[in-house]
Amino acid sequence: MAERRFGEVILAVQDISLSFGGVKALTSVSFEIREHEIRAIIGPNGAGKSSMLNVINGFYHPQEGSITYKGVTRSRMHPHHAASHGIARTFQNIALFRGMSTLDNIMTGRVHKMKANVLMQALYWPARREEVENREFVEHIIDFLEIQAIRKTPVGRLPYGMQKRVELGRALAAEPDLLLLDEPMAGMNLEEKEDMCRFVLDVTEEFGTTIALIEHDMGVVMDISDRVVVLDYGEKLADGVPAEVREDQAVVDAYLGVAHD
Amino acid sequence: MIYREAGQFKTSYPADRAIFPIVQDRYFVAAIALAAFVAVPLLASEYWLVTIMLPFLVLSLAAIGLNILTGYAGLLSLGTGGFMACGAFAAYKLSTAFPELHIIGVFALSGVITAGVGVVFGIPSLRIKGFYLAVATLASQFFLVWLFNKLPWFTNYSPSGVISAPPRALFGDVFVTGSSATPEAKYLFALTAVCVLALLAKNMVRGNIGRKWMAIRDMDIAAEIIGIPMLRTKLLAFAISSFYIGVAGAMWAFIYTSSVEALAFGIERSFQVLFIIIIGGLGSILGSFLGAAFIVLLPILLSNAPQLIGLQIPVDMVTHLEFMIFGALIILFLIVEPHGLARLWSIAKEKLRLWPFPH
Ligand SMILES: Nc1ncnc2c1ncn2[C@@H]1O[C@H](COP(=O)(O)OP(=O)(O)OP(=O)(O)O)[C@@H](O)[C@H]1O
Ligand SMILES: [Mg+2]
């Protein structure tokens, strides 16, 4: 894993603080993500991991701090801007479009690539080429994720593990530069987890995508991530390669539930 | 061995995206088209054309419009009647103010005007949804009908408040509105217009914009996060939906009834179209037709069927029965099968496809 060459810093968060009323979800958190790396974010329940991803893609607006993405520094992102500039994500609680088929769900990931206006679509022929080209791309993702058989199934009827996979497909369809995965393996059995690990590794390998990943399974984190950020009670506890982080006393204490002073 | 998908492999994405991908379906559709365009005008009586086929077509069009908004984009509206009135009065003002304007232009512009009105009334949908949006559209329903009733300018100061369609020819002396228009001409004109508009609607809902609408319907937060612009997509749904409903209103006034007053587009009309899409199928273009056929035919069936089996049912009883059956069916469909008749139809096809070997 260490052989993979990382590029420039694609995203840096500086001194991010976020609170909801009295609840401090994040306190002055800073870290950076480099191109092509798999960056894990770990920490106990309620540590602020999901909140961090929500800050990165603009769904939450932090009270303090700044975000530098592709060289541009802002005090906060906007979801629409993030989506159209190469940030895609999956959600901790699956957020698929339940009434739509697998194929249509993944096609929605391509909205930024499709430019035909409504009139062209109504007449069909002027929009046909665009539709077919994007369909070809999506079929490529369907093959990659090995979900050909459920292409036309409404996602509401799929088992949980499959839904997670479709959601990954929808994010990949956007051809993101930065992919945010919120617990992509939660609730999966061993075999499904292995499949998902393989997909995550293949994504960076095949498309060069940078990945920020929240995961509770330490085995998985140690196996596939290049660097790890540890959050606890909204604060950054540690940051480094998996081997370092595992030895860190503060991290061990946090996970064993040693009382805070 | 009649209805078989086996052996029909799609070798390209365009083929897979065809509206009728199965060969037998295409024959079936061709047969229906032949019947609708040739057999019906030749064989049907004037009664059938005027009191069944014309309202069926116009209501189907209105249902397609509401289905785009409610069935696809998930925005519940009770303003259909008001928007139909808008189309009807726009057509009346346009055709009396510009006698030179071709009737197709009149209908198209009425749709465009209604689309504009729909967008204005759709703006609150960015902030409110569900029940509250339904109430807001209900307000627009009452406001529009009140407006057309109150301001005599809309009826060209007719004392009765009734507007009558001026005679207009499609070409030469083939009149489609006014007293010299034959039922056959009206029917064929309405049929063609509805078929073309239905096809355009089908293309939209199976394309990118249709997926955006359904994404907003199924989970608006996720849709926003993957970058679907909320306001623009919702307003587009209001615009397109209102265009269809406006054209339907214009055709109601000009082709189906020939003269009409604003009260014909009251709240009952809104509910009627809503019931059509619930019974026919939310999120289905075909369902819009099935639901309209059902709602037009049921009263006729109810008033004729008892006699056929020798029963005498008084007229007011028939009306009560109609209400009860509609009510029961709507509750049934909402609970058991929100995709309505269209879904039952595709289940039947599925069964037929497998029959007699269910594997
Ligand atoms: N929208 C919100 N409104 C109010 N409080 C919130 C909101 N989102 C998160 N929080 C709070 O912020 C804190 C951090 O939550 P967050 O979801 O980021 O944790 P997490 O690390 O993802 O936990 P988990 O492992 O359980 O997913 C929690 O105390 C949570 O209750
Ligand atoms: Mg979380």
Explain what the structure shows.
The complex is a heterodimer of chains A (261) and B (359). Chain A is an alpha/beta fold. Chain A has 2 domains: 1-86 and 176-261, 3-Layer(aba) Sandwich (Rossmann fold); 96-175, no CATH class. Helix content of chain A is 38%, strand content 24%. Chain A contains 10 helices and 10 strands. Chain A has helices at 49-56, 79-84, 102-108, 118-123, 125-144, 160-173, 190-207, 218-224, 242-247, 249-256; strands at residues 9-20, 23-34, 38-42, 64-69, 72-74, 87-89, 178-182, 210-214, 227-232, 235-240. In chain A, β1 (9-20) and β2 (23-34) form a beta hairpin. The two termini of chain A are 37 Å apart. In chain A, 44% of the residues are buried. Chain B has helices spanning 13-16, 23-43, 46-72, 80-97, 103-122, 131-150, 183-205, 208-218, 220-225, 230-256, 267-280, 285-308, 315-336, 340-354, and strands at residues 162-164, 168-171, 174-177, 259-261. Chain B has a two-stranded antiparallel ribbon with strand order 1-4. The mean pLDDT of chain B is 89. Classes of the chains: A alpha/beta (261), B mainly alpha (359). At the A-B interface, α2, α3, α4 and α5 of A face α7, α8 and α9 of B. The structure holds adenosine-5'-triphosphate and magnesium ion.
